[in-house]
Target: Zinc finger CGNR domain-containing protein
Amino acid sequence: MSTGQWLIAPEGISWFFDAGADCLDFAAAPEPVHARDLGEWLAQRYDRLDAGEASDRDLADALALRAAIDRLATAAADRQSLDPDDVDTINLFGATPDIPPALAGGRRQAGAGRLRIGQVLSTLARDAIAILSVEPERIRRCDADDCRRVFRDESRTANRRWCSMQRCGNRAKVRAHRARQAASATPEH
Ligand SMILES: [Zn+2]
Model:
């Protein structure tokens, strides 16, 4: 699965956001309105999934899972306790069959050739369970006051500060530069 996605900022500019975890990318994606939107988003990331596979029932499931992941990750980022109802939701999805691991290089297709949406949702739920269980302190918010977007810091040094270097990282650099210029332009007396 490829991570990250292009999002549209309120200013109408598209920017790339990699949330650092598949489940957080899912939560950060624009909310799917139709089953087709959900199918297309998932099919871009999971081979063997047909975009037309998603039903209205899948959409309802996906929206419930997405909302639970979003609230849990936000609570983790803010060092708040996790809502037991949301925990139950991701545990429920995670308890269903996920995408089985497969080693490339074989000759046969093990199991069903096509993925079902339910398997993908289970895999996303298990991803959420993993990141909320292991090093939850790596789930943080973008440092920019007007952003505060939630991501998981995957960097070795655990010092990621921005949702995106191109967006908030650069804006902060520009602001810091202007502040330095303004400070040096201020008369000393
Ligand atoms: Zn940001």
